[in-house]
Specification:
Layout lengths: L1 H6 L15 E3 L4 E3 L6 E3 H6 L15 H8 L6 E2 L15 H12 L5 E8 L2 E8 L10 H17 L3 E7 L7 H20 L4 E10 H4 L8 E4 L5 E2 L3 H8 L10 H6 L5 E2 L5 H11 L6
Organism: Alteribacillus bidgolensis
Protein name: Acetyl-coenzyme A carboxylase carboxyl transferase subunit beta
InterPro entries: AcCoA_carboxyl_beta, Acetyl_CoA_COase_Trfase_b_su, ClpP/crotonase-like_dom_sf, COA_CT_N, Znf-ACC
């Protein structure tokens, strides 16, 4: 039976590293949608929050693009910008790769945190950016998220977190894995204080991030077709010796099985968050 399982020709859904990325054309003036192959002016695409106007496919957003699409203009104040990764294990070429990503993204780390207002509601917000080490969570990312949660606790504000990550950062070993417990413990303190945590999972939210803070929201939301899960599809199939559904680990699959509260298209996200904040009485009078 086991031999038949491994010899059988199988179809696999795409995993994050295999997912086609939007193609920039003419020095970035045009962008080709990886889903329907439509070619769109990049400026027009950005006006629609990086959602393809032909097929509705959600293309990646940078951290600041997402913040600008949600937070009221002029109200966002970034915090903890000085926290950056080090190389505790002297991992080969890790420092060079970090520096390369800093230059490419103009970010110090894979998450941006700060305070601002969403439709009149004061919030503390964190947004991961997958361009920086695939949004992986090292000690600096975990520290920034933890301090953002502590800021929300100190100012009695709700905390909103947008996840986009390949998981824990292997170059930092156990120091990276420790961030799962640290961020979760901080959220426990937030919960004990009666404050709100809204988690929004975008493509992809995997590994140690999905197994810690990203799944602990009072509301767990996700963007359409986002890949969400801990272990990879192949590993799970080989372990349980069963073929998984085509849509396994998609946001829609998780919603169907009770692991999400709602799948929210990007252009409805601001209104949805505003409604949640209003229901919980966070709008300033």
């Amino acid at each position: 039976m086991l031999k038949d399982f491994f010899n059988k020709k199988r179809k696999y859904a795409k995993i994050p590293s295999e997912r086609q990325q939007p193609v920039k054309m003419n020095d970035g003036v045009m962008t080709k949608c990886p889903e329907c192959k439509s070619i769109v002016y990049t400026k027009e695409l950005k006006k629609h929050d990086m959602v393809c106007i032909s097929c509705g496919h959600h293309l990646p957003m940078t951290a600041y693009e997402r913040i600008n699409s949600l937070v009221e203009e002029g109200t966002f104040v970034e915090i903890n910008t000085d926290i950056t990764s080090r190389d505790p294990l002297s991992f080969p070429e890790y420092e060079q790769k970090l520096e390369k990503d800093r230059q490419k993204t103009k970010l110090n780390e894979a998450v941006v945190t700060g305070e601002g207002y969403i439709e009149g509601c004061p919030v503390v917000i964190g947004v991961m950016d997958q361009r920086f080490r695939m949004g992986s969570m090292g000690s600096a990312v975990g520290e920034k998220i933890t301090r953002a949660i502590e800021q929300a606790l100190s100012k009695q504000r709700p905390f909103i977190m947008f996840s986009a990550s390949g998981g824990a950062r292997m170059q930092e070993g156990v120091l990276s894995l420790m961030q799962m417990a640290k961020t979760s413990a901080a959220l426990k303190r937030l919960d004990e204080a009666g404050l709100l945590f809204v988690s929004v999972m975008t493509h992809p939210t995997t590994g140690g991030v999905s197994a810690s803070f990203a799944s602990l929201g009072d509301y767990n939301l996700a963007e359409p077709a986002a890949l969400i899960g801990f272990a990879g599809r192949r590993i799970i199939e080989q372990t349980i010796r069963q073929e998984l559904p085509e849509d396994f680990q998609t946001a829609e699959f998780l919603l169907k099985h009770g692991q999400l509260d709602k799948v929210v298209p990007r252009q409805e996200m601001k209104e949805t968050l505003s409604s949640i904040l209003d229901i919980h009485g966070y709008k300033e009078k």
